[in-house]
Amino acid sequence: MINNEIYNIFLSFFTAFAITFLAIPVIIKVAKEKHLFDFPDERKVHSSKIPTLGGIGIFLGFLFAMTFWTRFIECWHLQYLTASLIIISFLGIKDDLIGLSAFKKAVGQVFAALILVIWGDLRIESFYNIFGVQELPYMISVLFTTFTIIVIINAYNLIDGIDGLAASLGLVASVTFGVLFFMTGKNYQQSILAFSLAGGLLGFLKFNITPAKIFMGDTGSMVVGFIVAFLALEFIEIKDFAGNSWLAVGAAPLISMSLIFVPLYDLARVFGIRLWNKRSPFRADQNHLHHMLLKLGFSHMYSTFIMTLFASLLILLALMFERLGNYWIGAILLSTCLLFTYILWGLVKKRGAKQINGK
Q1: pLDDT digits 0-9 by tens, 312-336
Q2: Residue 136 above 90 pLDDT?
Q3: pLDDT tens-place string over residues 35-56
Q4: What gap in Å lies between CA 144 and CA 138, rounded to an integer?
Q5: Cβ(109)–Cβ(289) below 8 Å
Q6: What is the average pLDDT value for the chain, to the nearest integer?
Q7: What mean pLDDT is predicted for residues 274-297?
């Protein structure tokens, strides 16, 4: 039984990789013929027009691998995940092609999240005694879970600022989720989903490394964010870790959060800076962590490497100290991020900020 599941996991990864890898060149060709480019402007860090819609390739690779290799009867709410992803992908495609207001995008994201939360019954049902809260009332659970999904989607949407970054962070998170799900001893379908996403992201990365031939666009960042949110919620709500004593079920929320902590931290930090400066939190700027690395003179790929390595370090720290519980894990993750930010800020102040593509 376990051997069959291992085969399915590997096959799902390679299936998603192959489909995305083969689809991206076609998407690039169509985008160039139809002039579907992401044009540079004063806030963007690329200096030439780049085809967008790479997220369609990721979505197709993941969707085919998921529907082909998973058993919906063992993970019944996958049908609602599929329905939600279709909505998210259409939102992203419209935004990439003709633009979409923040309000309409938020309404669509909420609707997609509610399908998964209400019909799929995938909810954060407990706070695991964080702030002294255990079980959540149904409506509070629905609202909080929906809010969590929206935050994660937009965290990945905003972190997608330089070549390879969002895909690399998504790859680290999905592979780690896939391994953790497999090690629980029973959540093999979720592991297949995680490795399907990993395969799609790896197939896309070949074309997104500098010089990038295509961007994932909002289609990709929102699809990746939604799938990662789904995996995070699934992990938090695992009731039985099949006797794996190395993993404390009570620390599941912060273990899960550690896999996506860099996008979440960067979102909170950037929104905080914008509000402090009395600006709209949704108005784009160059205050992200990856912008600080670019201002130090690092290339896109080296900045992505540093950010990915840092994200991996946070996951390692969370797993090393998971027995300390949610409070300590949270304090360790936040302290490490603050230290990292302080070091980058200090280096920028000391060396002086370099221009980003002449901007």
Answers
A1: 999 999 998 888 888 899 999 999 9
A2: no
A3: 777 655 555 554 567 888 899 9
A4: 10
A5: no
A6: 88
A7: 84
Q: How far apart are CA 316 and CA 333, in angstroms?
A: 10
Residue 1 has pLDDT above 60, yes or no: no
Side chain identity at 248, as an amino acid letter?
A
- Cα(42)–Cα(357) distance, integer angstroms: 10
